[in-house]
Write a structure and sequence with these properties.
Elements: H1 7-18, E1 24-29, E2 40-45
Antiparallel strand pairs: 1-2
């Protein structure tokens, strides 16, 4: 079972959830890889459903 939401709808879900919960998901950490010019993806707090290029977040697909 799954859900298909538009971008605006997903942002509303995040707005409601972040009011009472911390949401964690994959986050791109720029420059923290094995070498200074590589990125690494780890779990961290996520503030938007799709913030690639903004705040270092990797797109989430729920």
């Amino acid at each position: 079972m799954g859900f298909q939401l538009k971008q605006g709808d997903m942002e509303q879900v995040f707005d409601r959830l972040t009011g009472g919960y911390d949401i964690y998901g994959p986050v791109r950490m720029t420059g923290e890889g094995m070498y200074s010019d590589t990125d690494v993806v780890r779990y961290g707090q996520v503030h938007t459903p799709r913030g690639a290029g903004m705040g270092g977040e990797v797109p989430l697909f729920l």
